[in-house]
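Me: I keep going back and forth on a fold encoding question. No explanation is needed for now; the record alone will do.

Assistant:
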Amino acid sequence: MRQYSADLTPPWKKPQPVPEVPADPGLVVEEPGTGFCGAVIRCEAGTVTLEDRFGKHRVFPLEPRGFLLEGRAVTLVRPAAGPARPARTASGSVAVPGARARVARAGRIYVEGRHDAELVEKVWGDDLRIEGVVVEYLEGVDHLPSIVTDFAPGPDARLGVLVDHLVPGSKEFHIARSVTSDHALVVGHPYIDIWEAVKPASLGIPEWPRVPRGQDWKTGVCRALGWPSDNTGAVWQAILKRVHSYKDLEPELLGRVEELIDFVTGSGGA
């Protein structure tokens, strides 16, 4: 019987070529088979060592299509010899490969809700771990006075708070003023919700829609953009995946978060 060796796999089912990316120290990738995500700390012949946010190390083989970079398959290769440009964290800071997380400070940063905390973690997480700053959330600005009272901020335990929609005359504005002190700093951005601090261009939309007063903002936004309005949590996760660095966020948020980090880690905040 005659043998045929022709490849009959349809073109659309064949693996597509993926980019080769140097495994430079500090590069953050995910190994899809295990879900392990970490920064490159070492690349040797045939293997790469990653360190996750908890300081755990894992060694993986350098295989084709073996890793995900910002959600896309890549092939890691040994970096070329010679000096490399310093790696950057998502916040734009110079990365410190192999740095251990500092023991948590007494000071804290509070944000309004879980979505705020997830966004801060994604962009500033590396910086915060090196500085030993823990981020917690309020579940609403109405809880801020009692949290500040219980926390009792002082010279050795500063408290920083990020508030949504902090505009003069608002309820949030008056609450923020009532708890601000030398050791408690409350700053805010002008956006109704942290979603709005993500640049529309990063999401492929022309702008954030206006939602009439009295209507739930997230629900109104989803309806206006044709997104599923019955599961705003899933929509948020889709938004968060499109945020890769500080470049995807509005300056009004960037400045406020950097201000809080400086305040909590500054002189008297350790």
Notes: The two ends are 80 Å apart (CA to CA). The first strand starts at residue 20 and ends at 22. Residues 108-265 form one domain. Confidence is low (pLDDT under 50) at residues 1-6.
